[in-house]
């Protein structure tokens, strides 16, 4: 048969191919490490020399001392100005050091300007504003951050838009609102509520608190919800304990804002027995010697400086808290 195929009786072995010349192996490319040199006025090599270190520390010391004097000198001038006599304050050129240290001028300022009454009023106003600020702003920020209502973004946007309005523009509408409270018709002039309510309505504090609450892990909230905790319980037991830095910042800012405010208390607290310390000192400044007036300003500044030095660590921790989510 012509199409029949003949199979061999034993298997055919095919010889392996002869090895050719070895292939040239390509060298591995090492990852390129880019080294960027940041140039400055003084090179790192120069800083290692004695001459370079001398120049560096000289410039650094000069800059630090200059800026420190620029900030501290007004405080020094205020404290020493109270120790000078009116004639010494009026002389030209002024003297940098008082000729005599008469600390009795501070007691005179305390008695003549009735600083005890004004400081008590200011403490009441600042304390009430602080409590209402924490109550309303913390609740609003928690609702916008964790509860997420339907129109939450729109409400937050309207709150932030109030920060773009100059305070002097809303001064008259706010005064008319306090004089005749809508719906209720109450007159809040010469009452602490005229200070407390506007201080609590602060869109910046709500935004600051919300940004911090956003950085709190969602897993903590969900674990508490699984355990059956209510939103109020979650706020009190979970959110507030981890929010101490930002609560400290908001507390300090709210107290300082009320303490240093002048125009708004001047409008809503015309009664002399209910004035704040800033308004009280300004109202009696024309009747007092200049050194007594400066001494009263020193006394009025002491509480805010003490608050800053005590809570400065909380201020720095709270301003950077919540900036990065981890």
TrEMBL record:
SUPFAM superfamilies the record matches: MetI-like
Listed InterPro entries: MetI-like (IPR000515), MetI-like_sf (IPR035906)
Top-level taxon in the UniProt lineage: Bacteria
ABC transmembrane type-1 domain location: 119-311
Keywords, sorted A to Z: Cell membrane, Membrane, Transmembrane, Transmembrane helix, Transport
Compositional bias ranges of the Low complexity kind: 1-12
Keyword Hydrolase carried by entry: no
Membrane topology: Multi-pass membrane protein
Cell wall biogenesis/degradation keyword on record: no
Pro residues: bias regions: 13-22
Pfam families: BPD_transp_1
Transmembrane segments: 54-77, 123-144, 156-175, 195-213, 234-259, 292-311
Primary localization: membrane
Location of this chain's protein in the cell: Cell membrane
Region annotation (Disordered) ranges: 1-39
Family to which this protein belongs: Belongs to the binding-protein-dependent transport system permease family.
Name of this protein: Carbohydrate ABC transporter permease
């Amino acid at each position: 048969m012509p199409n029949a195929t003949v199979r061999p009786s034993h298997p055919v072995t095919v010889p392996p191919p002869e090895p050719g010349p070895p292939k040239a192996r390509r060298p591995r490319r090492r990852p390129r490490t880019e080294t960027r040199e940041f140039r400055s006025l003084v090179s790192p090599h120069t800083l290692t020399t004695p001459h370079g270190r001398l120049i560096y520390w000289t410039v650094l010391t000069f800059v630090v001392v200059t800026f420190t004097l620029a900030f501290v000198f007004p405080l020094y001038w205020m404290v020493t100005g109270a120790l000078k006599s009116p004639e010494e304050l009026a002389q030209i050129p002024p003297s940098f050091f008082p000729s005599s240290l008469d600390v009795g001028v501070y007691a005179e300022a305390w008695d003549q300007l009735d600083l005890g009454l004004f400081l008590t009023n200011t403490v009441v106003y600042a304390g009430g504003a602080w409590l209402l600020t924490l109550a309303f702003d913390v609740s609003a920020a928690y609702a916008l951050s964790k509860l997420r209502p339907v129109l939450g973004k729109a409400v937050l946007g309207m709150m932030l838009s109030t920060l773009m309005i100059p305070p002097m523009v809303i001064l008259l509408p706010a005064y008319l609102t306090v004089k005749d409270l809508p719906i209720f018709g109450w007159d809040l002039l010469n009452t602490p509520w005229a200070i407390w309510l506007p201080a609590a309505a602060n869109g910046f504090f709500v935004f600051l608190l919300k940004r911090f609450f956003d950085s709190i892990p969602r897993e903590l909230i969900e674990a508490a919800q699984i355990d059956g905790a209510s939103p109020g319980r979650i706020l009190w037991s979970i959110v507030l304990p981890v929010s101490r830095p930002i609560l400290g910042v908001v507390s300090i800012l709210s107290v300082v804002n009320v303490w240093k405010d002048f125009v708004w208390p001047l409008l809503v607290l015309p009664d002399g027995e209910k004035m704040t310390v800033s308004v009280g000192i300004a109202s009696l400044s024309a009747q007092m010697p200049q050194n007594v007036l400066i001494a009263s300003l020193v006394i009025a500044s002491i509480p805010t400086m003490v608050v800053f030095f005590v809570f400065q660590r909380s201020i720095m921790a709270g301003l950077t808290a919540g900036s990065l989510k981890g």
